[in-house]
Amino acid sequence: MADISTVRLPDGSEHSIKDTTARGLAADAGSTASAALSAAMGALVFDTDYVIASGVATFSAHVWRAGEEVTTEYPATAFEWSLRLGTASSATALGTGRTMQVALSALGYGGHVICTFTTDE
User: Fold this and answer.
1) What is the pTM assigned to this prediction?
2) Which residues lie closer than 8 Å to 13 by C-beta, 6 or more apart?
3) 8 A C-beta contact, residue 83 and residue 38
4) How many whole angstroms separate alpha carbon 76 and alpha carbon 78?
5) Could you tell me whether strands 44-53 and 56-65 are parallel, antiparallel, or unpaired per DSSP bridges?
6) DSSP for the chain?
7) How do residues 64-110 score in pLDDT, each as one tens digit?
8) Per residue in 19-61, pLDDT tens?
9) Residue 51: CB atoms within 10 Å
10) How big is the CA angle at 82 (ends 43 and 18), to the nearest 5 degrees?
11) Residue 91 to residues 19, 25, 49: CA-CA distances in angstroms?
12) 39 burial via Cβ count (<10 Å: 0-12, 13-18, 19+)
């Protein structure tokens, strides 16, 4: 399973990040790397992770600024989640929020959960 993160900038451009690692199982390492990257760049860094338990994948969005997590500074509506199955060209909306839960049975083989973060910064 992979998750795909998309950042939509004020000019309407979108930038995708595909994460194919098991970062959900090593969230501390991912969080540390994102914090360090945001501190070094002096810019916003957006990433996602996931944890699987009891047949459900819980996806979480994270936003970092200058080495600090600032996710809660953004409204839940800034994070739009969708699901793309297999080789489908379009995705189905799942909802908004800083986290999203998806039953593993809904993901099927090759399902991708996508989080689009929209900011006016």
Assistant:
1) 0.69
2) none
3) no
4) 5
5) antiparallel
6) -EEEEEEE-TTS-EEEEEE-S-GGGGHHHHHHHHHHHHHHHTSEEEEEEEEEETTEEEEEEEEEETTEE-GGGS-GGGEEEEEE-TT-SS-EEEEESSEEEEEHHHH-TT-EEEEEEE---
7) 887 788 999 999 999 999 998 877 788 899 999 999 999 988 887 77
8) 433 333 333 344 556 666 665 566 777 888 889 899 899 999 9
9) 14
10) 50
11) 17, 25, 19
12) middle
- Smallest Cα–Cα separation from 63: which of 90, 31, 92? 31
Q: Distance between CA 71 and CA 45 in Å, rounded? A: 10
